[in-house]
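Lecture notes, continued. The same structure-token format from the folding unit now serves as the input rather than the output. Read the line below as a description of shape only.
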């Protein structure tokens, strides 16, 4: 990226965040001016565009409240039910509604804003890390098939929409090692093979390694473990493996495998043959400066794994987006993964915030506004039981649930994310992602959130370190058939200094891990354990690769591989059975909690 372009983009960020209040006012004014006559808004505002009337009469809603409107548009009715903008596609959210994917309306304005975020973040990265213009990024990116809808428009995952955008194809694509045809190939194994092969051929150009979600990294490492011999053979002979048959993959590879390169193959093979793969990323790509991946929320469980394989390269979560809206960017990218905060960009959408109980973020669930009953919504707002604040009025250190209004037909929509205010960049707040608004585990009256469970497991990982174990993935479920009910965790472990999947598990260590988890959970859980209303926590260690099979199961049900997030809590019987059938050890928390 040219220096003048970097300076322009950074100046743009400063201008927007310095005038956060004014930017928000303009965004809402524009949305109301253009969409006030839509069926949905007209029902509440009767054509008025006043901000105070909007806040007073338009209810705060969830997806279920507006699903019927969206379904009508998906089925082919005119979009002016919700927006006067032209709908270009539907974005499929990684969340679900009744087991079905959520459809989010997308417009040209949405696409432009989605594309601008990586460009802005690119400028921020150039500011903090020198020399990025001297090489490229090896980004492991994968597309997914589109789906036809009765409206005639396509429905696609957020990642596929981004990779197909003109901005990526014409601008950002130039910063990555892989040809666009390979990235857009729908054959994921062949695409991954070619992306890794090109990355190794161009290893001295690679200055950063990334993907969208951190969960992709363990899959790529496993893929390398299974295919490194073929990759080295291809490099040595200058001939692409015969099993790569997809034209979108095979044809572009001809320009990279021009001749045999036994010297490179000889260099790589000893690295792959090493008993320990700790730090292998920096050995394969010695000039890599950082890892780029989302490691906030449920993705935080992969931080230790990435540290292990990368030799503790900096891990940078660059921006905060969702299918519903773009939120912000990480203006301090070199902070530790656990300290990541995102500066909200006030020109992306109109943002509001529901205050959340500081001690118990899940209490925000009580603030459910029913979009069907407008009178009930008004009553809750007017009697002060649900005070909603604007972007510039949030308070330092407080917790909030974010609510968005967009030009594409979302009005006071609860995204479901709980955030904490950690500071301000000029007049725009910085937020730390706390958790997605849901309860991971629940037995009787105890409700354990994803954030609380993640924190407790991180505390227990300390017990593994002296024994050389690395926790590579976890999930859980509430065993409500036992009396009393109990929480069961599935853990996938590996030895730090070996690639063998044969583990000798020490019962005392694993039982101590169980106890550490329990001691780190909240007061309610510990109280119920003392009262024997909840049974002893159990950890079930599964074979290495079990979570790959879990991912395959969810992908077979329609999940996008690139957007797949390992569920923190399993509720589908078949998913639990997949992990249960691969258990190699069971361990329980012994004794009573203090």
């Amino acid at each position: 990226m040219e220096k003048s372009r970097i300076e322009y983009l950074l100046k743009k960020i400063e201008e927007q965040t310095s005038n956060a209040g004014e930017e928000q006012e303009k965004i809402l004014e524009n949305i109301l001016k253009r969409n006030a006559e839509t069926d949905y808004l007209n029902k509440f505002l009767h054509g008025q565009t006043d901000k105070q009337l909007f806040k007073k009469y338009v209810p705060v809603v969830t997806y279920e409240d507006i699903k019927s409107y969206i379904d009508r548009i998906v089925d082919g009715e005119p979009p002016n039910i919700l927006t006067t903008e032209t709908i270009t596609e539907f974005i499929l959210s990684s969340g679900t509604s009744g087991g079905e994917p959520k459809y989010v309306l997308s417009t040209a304005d949405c696409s432009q804003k989605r594309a601008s975020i990586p460009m802005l973040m690119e400028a921020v990265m150039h500011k903090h890390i020198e020399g990025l213009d001297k090489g490229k990024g090896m980004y492991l990116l994968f597309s997914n098939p589109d789906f036809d809808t009765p409206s005639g428009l396509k429905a696609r995952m957020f990642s596929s929409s981004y990779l197909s955008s003109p901005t990526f194809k014409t601008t950002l694509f130039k910063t990555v090692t892989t040809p666009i045809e390979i990235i857009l190939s729908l054959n994921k194994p062949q695409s991954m093979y070619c992306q890794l092969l090109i990355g190794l051929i161009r290893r001295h150009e690679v200055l950063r390694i990334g993907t969208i979600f951190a969960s992709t990294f363990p899959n790529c490492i496993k893929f390398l473990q299974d295919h490194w011999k073929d990759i080295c053979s291809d490099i040595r002979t200058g001939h692409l493996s015969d099993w790569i048959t997809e034209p979108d993959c095979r044809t572009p590879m001809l320009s990279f495998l021009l001749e045999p390169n036994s010297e490179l193959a000889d260099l790589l093979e000893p690295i792959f043959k090493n008993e320990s793969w700790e730090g292998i990323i920096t050995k394969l790509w010695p000039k890599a400066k950082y890892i780029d991946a989302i490691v906030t929320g449920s993705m935080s469980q992969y931080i230790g794994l990435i540290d292990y394989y990368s030799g503790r390269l900096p891990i940078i979560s660059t921006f905060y987006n969702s299918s519903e809206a773009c939120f912000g960017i990480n203006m301090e990218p070199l902070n530790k993964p656990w300290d990541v905060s995102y500066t909200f960009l006030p020109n992306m959408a109109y943002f509001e915030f529901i205050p959340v109980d500081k001690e118990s973020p899940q209490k925000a669930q009580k603030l459910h506004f029913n979009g069907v009953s407008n009178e009930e919504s008004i009553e809750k707002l007017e009697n002060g039981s649900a005070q909603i604040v604007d972007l510039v009025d949030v308070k330092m250190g407080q917790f909030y649930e974010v609510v968005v209004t967009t030009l594409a037909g979302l009005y006071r929509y609860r995204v479901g994310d709980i955030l904490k205010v950690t500071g301000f960049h000029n007049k725009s707040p910085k937020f730390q992602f706390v958790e997605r608004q849901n309860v991971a585990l629940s037995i009787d009256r105890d409700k354990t959130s994803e954030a609380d469970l993640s924190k407790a497991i991180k505390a227990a990982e300390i017990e593994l370190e002296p024994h050389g174990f690395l926790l590579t993935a976890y999930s859980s479920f509430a065993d409500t058939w036992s009396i009393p009910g109990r929480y069961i965790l599935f853990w996938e472990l590996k030895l730090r200094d070996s690639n063998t999947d044969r583990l000798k598990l020490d019962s005392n260590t694993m039982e101590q891990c169980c106890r550490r988890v329990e001691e780190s959970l909240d007061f309610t859980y510990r109280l119920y354990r003392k009262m024997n209303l909840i049974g002893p926590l159990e950890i079930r260690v599964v074979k290495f690769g079990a979570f790959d099979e879990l991912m395959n199961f969810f992908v077979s049900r329609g999940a996008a591989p690139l957007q797949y997030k390992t569920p923190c809590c399993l509720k589908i019987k078949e998913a639990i059975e997949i992990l249960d059938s691969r258990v190699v050890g069971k361990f329980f928390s012994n004794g009573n909690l203090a």
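Point for the exam: The first strand starts at residue 87 and ends at 97.
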